[in-house]
Amino acid sequence: MSQEVEDETVKEYLSDILFGVSSNEKEINQLIEENLKEKWTLDRISKVNLSLLKLAIYEMIYKKLPYKVAINEVVELGKKYSDEQAQSFINGILASIVKQQNLG
User: Are 37 and 28 in contact (CB under 8 A)?
Assistant: First the structure.
């Protein structure tokens, strides 16, 4: 069975996400760092959780996706692919960013 993505819409979405996150990574990382609790750094966040945070931030700020949709999407992914604390950690950081950026 092939692992290749054949749906053109999915390919375009993935391309957009990869390009968008990488070309805005400095600003996205800064937003995450500004909303971490004291003594936390980016390298302390699991790779899965960091990727999910970056995805949601890109979708909310650069793609103008409604914040509730973006947050719900990554929280669900966190439940599936990360640990038990992922849900509240991701939700907390993103809620703080929504407030900071007046997205709500």
Answer: no
**Three-state SS across 61-95?**
HHCCCCHHHHHHHHHHHHHHHCCCCHHHHHHHHHH
Sign of the Cα pseudo-torsion (36, 37, 38, 44, in order) = negative
Distance CA 38, CA 94 (A): 16
Nearest alpha carbon to residue 86 among 31, 48, 39 = 48
% of the chain surpassing 70 pLDDT:
98
Q: What is the reported pLDDT for 2?
A: 61
Q: What is the dihedral of CA 10, 75, 46, 38, to 10 degrees?
A: 130
By 3-state DSSP, what share of the chain in percent is helix, strand and coil, each rounded to 5?
Answer: 70, 0, 30
Instruction: State the amino acid at position 23 in one-letter form.
Output: S
pTM for the whole structure: 0.92
46 phi/psi in degrees, rounded to 5: -60, 150
